[in-house]
Amino acid sequence: MTSEIHHTQSVGRYRDVFRRSVEDPESFWLEATMQIDWDAAPTRAVDDSNAPLYRWFPDGVLNTSYNCLDRHVAAGFGDRPALIHDAPLAPEGQQRTAYTYAELTEDVARCAGMLRAAGVNAGDRVVVYLPMIPAAAITMLACARLGAVHSMVFGGFAPKELAARIDDAQPTAVVTATGGVEPTRRIEYLPAVAEALRLATHRVEAVVVKHRDGFETAVADVSAQSAPTHWLDWDDAITQADAVAPVPVRATDPLYILYTSGTTGAPKGVVRDHGGHAVALRWSMENIYDVGPGQVMFTASDVGWVVGHSYIVYAPLLAGATSILYEGKPVGTPDAGAFWRLIEEYGVRSFFTAPTALRAVRKTDPDGLLREGRDLSSLKTLFVAGERLDPETQRWAADLLGVPVVDNWWQTETGWPIGANPVGLEPLPIKEGSCTVPSPGYAVEVLDALGKPVGPGEEGNICLKLPMAPGNLPTLWGNDQRFIDSYLTAFDGYYATGDSGYIDDDGYLFVMGRTDDVINVSGHRLSTGALEQALASHPAVAECAVIGLDDQLKGQRPFGYVVLKSGVEVPGSGSTAEEELLAQLRATVRESVGAVADFKEVAIVEALPKTRSGKILRKTMRQLAQGDEMKVPSTIEDATVLDALAPILRRAR
Ligand code: COA
Ligand code: AMP
Fold first, then answer.
1. What is the tally of structural domains in the chain?
2. What is the pTM of this model?
3. CA dist 530 to 161, 522, 526, 559, 576, Å?
């Protein structure tokens, strides 16, 4: 089934634009380049000379930070708010900081000067381990200004994961802060950074630390462990730094690396280029998110995730809009009315969050009492992504807010929606359970296991016909072959998204779930492989399996099942010894992957069901645990193992 729109009801404009984007991508995207300022404007859109590796705008030269900042100042909009940091947990008087375009340009130029003085030049990498504070956006844009490549790491990851990213990206510098603030605790970042530097084999030249009040660890406590790395204080260094002008780079040069979970424990370094990214994101702002210059977008995600990269930092600024950087939670900071407060206070036009965040708000305030009395008339659309939007949450939010609730489906790899309701271009009727239609630029097809297109309504592998749209990953960092093997080999001529789903008679796309062992917890993508690797590192564990089970709040939750090594005895279920071991197993995952894994459920079992070739039947375990229709493969080695496991798996429901 291909992504052709069949019905004509209200789909005139979208249909024409979509058709042109896939039939003549060259002229479609060259036209879109007009929205970007170039040092050398591209004369070609896509370079297919090295297929299946494609490059966008091969002869274009630009600077992304110039496009996000300086050009708006030059156009006379220096006084317009660019970024507003809203931090409800900060001390009185520090809860709101607003930057105009002129101020943000100045700070980014100085930050670029600071990084250059620390040894960072065009092409060098900078690992950024920062919470949701302005320094995060400033550092990203400063790297872009220098032509350096940033790699953000979410604060919920453990030192081992940070070290793995440092070793893969080989950064010249790490930028961090003394800590991050969670509703229930303060998270000290410096010990984690020092530990990651100790674990990594790569030597980092400099660590820049943004000091925040209220954290215990000082640079002096940790810097000696990581000699000869220089530790710099952000505030001192930035005051002494010169402002740096934007460095022109090729459109095909890397802007950032963002690591994401694959099916194995080794994270994949998704690369984003400058040119395709700027063109696609700029285009998406007006056509999908319906936000233009001077309008306000609030994306409640984290800058450590792709949604944060694209729609907290780059896209709103490329469009000359105002972006809200919210260092808070959907609930508990201080209450479930936080989102509504922000929308009213800042006049938000487009609000973007994850379904899990809405479910958290709904659980706490099901009748929306905290929305009462708020003037939300600025709000035109609520966008959600990160996981499937369940119809109940969609209805609840639409009733509460009185605006369309628009699902959009994408991945770290694509950088912007593969499927969405193109509200800015032409609002299409919403169908529950569907992310609406393929975005212009994405030739979406649903293929069976042999690579043949399936019929309308039939589920299969959702694939993107090559070349993928601009802004999508050109490769994995330093590893073209892994990129080809992971995404481009299963279906010749296509990128395999790893998601399954179908396209209905009207051309609407329904994304149903992953085809691999990637799970989605609170809108965060996790690899069960990485969790298993952590569990397996415990000395008592012989083998293990982690599966993701449906969860009413978080979408999915990871459940671990471990078989102990022979000779390791645990007396009886519920015994203190067993509880201690289970606590150790949870702690092992937390130490190894991080709090973000949210790994709380683990059980000791006698054996795991396997095929005769030794493959653990995770899918069958999941079906059994959830009470779904179960298909036991004929290749199962010993069906009695599954029978014995059944009561334990059912307990997870
Ligand atoms: N740094 C360090 N630790 C972090 C962290 C960060 N930036 N973010 C989360 N954590 C920790 C939490 O403190 C928690 O630790 P705990 O086990 O000690 O309590 C753990 O990671 C899990 O946190 P979280 O996933 O946030 O679960 P929660 O139960 O605290 O909150 C929600 C549930 C739904 C409110 C929350 O997950 C949420 O806001 N989700 C939205 C996610 C989102 O916007 N995703 C964007 C994808 S587009
Ligand atoms: P990430 O790369 O972390 O953004 O995770 C991407 C994965 O999350 C996708 O491959 C999907 O499995 C899932 N996902 C994201 N958005 C949606 C959505 N709107 N509907 C269904 N699944 C989604």
1. 1
2. 0.93
3. 10, 17, 8, 13, 28
